[in-house]
Amino acid sequence: MTTTELQVATTTAISKRTSTTMKALVYHGPGKRAWEDKPRPAIQSPSDAIVRVTTSTICGTDLHILKGDLPAVTDGRILGHEGIGVVEQVGTGVSEFHVGDRVIISCVTACLKCDFCKRGMYSHCRSGGWILGYTIDGTQAEFVRIPQADGSLYHFPAGGDEESLVMLSDILPTGFECGVLNGQVKPGDTVAIVGAGPIGLAVLLTAQFYSPAAIFMIDLDDKRLAVAKKFGATTLVNSTDGKAAEHVMELTGGVGVDVAIEAVGLPATFAICQAIVAAGGRIANVGVHGKPVELHMEKLWDRNISLTTRLVDTVTTPMLLKVVNSGKLQPSKLVTHRFAMNDIMKAYDTFANAAKEGALKVVLTNPAPR
Ligand SMILES: NC(=O)c1ccc[n+]([C@@H]2O[C@H](COP(=O)([O-])OP(=O)(O)OC[C@H]3O[C@@H](n4cnc5c(N)ncnc54)[C@H](O)[C@@H]3O)[C@@H](O)[C@H]2O)c1
Ligand SMILES: [Zn+2]
Ligand SMILES: [Zn+2]
Q1: DSSP labels for 176-230?
Q2: Are the beta carbons of 138 and 80 closer than 8 angstroms?
């Protein structure tokens, strides 16, 4: 089918739509996705809200899902865990949000009441955690049901910038919590970030809250590395030659780095982190892994290192919201491509071929009907 034929097909499908259906990006098993009709979500529990999605994005995790790395995602699931929208309907138990409110949707659902939520570990909430676009339908659709709405939505600040604030759904809290906080980045530290995708770049932006002395950025893609340079990386390492670890060791006089942050999710990139961590250093894993990695205890046992993993908790979202809203962080600079939500299939093609397309964050918009 040509692009024009596709567009005609899409338009016809939309004109036939009734108010009980909507368009959504649906996963149909590894490598298979479609923009198709689905029933509109309805309130299922008093704590639910239905949100009309006005802005969404695609995440590296969605690509992992499409690769088949996350088998918990089943055929028919609507993908997407990032977005901004307008509250369309609320359950009787929702007290903090009302119909018509503009909201930022968090990728993590939190009841704020269970033992995990009370420890600030929303990622493992007994009735939530990361479920959106994973085990329940997500935000790459015209409407989405948000369970535990009071704990999972944030008010969109008056005068806020949608393209910056959508980065609060996932990448900013993820980069900051899983990379910077778990890696305990301190003033004067030497930090290496493996992976200059949106998540790695979010680590780069938020690591600078703590004034590290040097930040190495490692990736295969020179275009992404150039962006990292603009965002504050001090040294760029292209790892296409497979020798990133050797280069970093050379550049640090054989010492290695205080913090090595894995923001890709592959055995090879986790191996780089193990090879470059200095004695007394930290490895903070951010990447979603679909395959086992080798842990080189024969080299690490006497290095006094710590290794952390984390699913983003989003507990720092309120703080990051203030920083972004003040204009001190401008994550909208990560946006390279803009598409109408209806063109999400093209947006996926662009994001999946990020190196060729020069893509970082791909924003999808679905403006409010007049
Ligand atoms: N822990 C969490 O809570 C959490 C939350 C969100 C995303 N993630 C994960 O974070 C990771 C990054 O997400 P993203 O959106 O930035 O993904 P992305 O796919 O856009 O970026 C990954 C980057 O890694 C680079 N890369 C690939 N192989 C490499 C290699 N051998 N050496 C160096 N660089 C290499 C790619 O060029 C790309 O720039 C993904 O695994 C994603 O699933 C984790
Ligand atoms: Zn994500
Ligand atoms: Zn909870």
Answers
A1: IIIIIITTT--TT-EEEEE--SHHHHHHHHHHGGG--SEEEEEES-HHHHHHHHH
A2: yes
Per-residue pLDDT, averaged over 280-298, amounts to 96
First to last CA, the chain: 32
Looking from the CA of residue 286, the nearest atom of ligand 1 is 1
Largest Cα–Cα separation, the chain: 66
Q: Which of 244, 296, 302 is nearest to 274 (CA)?
A: 296
**Residue in this structure with the two tokens 């390279």, named with its chain if needed:** 336
Tell me if 113 sits within 8 A of 171, measured CB to CB: no
Q: Which ligand is nearest to the CA of 167?
A: 2
Question: Whole-model pTM?
Answer: 0.93
40, 138, 361 from 14: Cα distances, Å: 14, 20, 26
User: Using CA positions, which residue lies closest to atom 43 of ligand 1?
Assistant: 61
Residues 249 and 256 sit within 8 Å (Cβ to Cβ): yes
Q: How far apart are CA 167 and CA 169, in angstroms?
A: 5
What would the mean pLDDT of 126-138 be, rounded to a whole number?
98
Q: Mean of the per-residue pLDDT values for the chain? A: 94
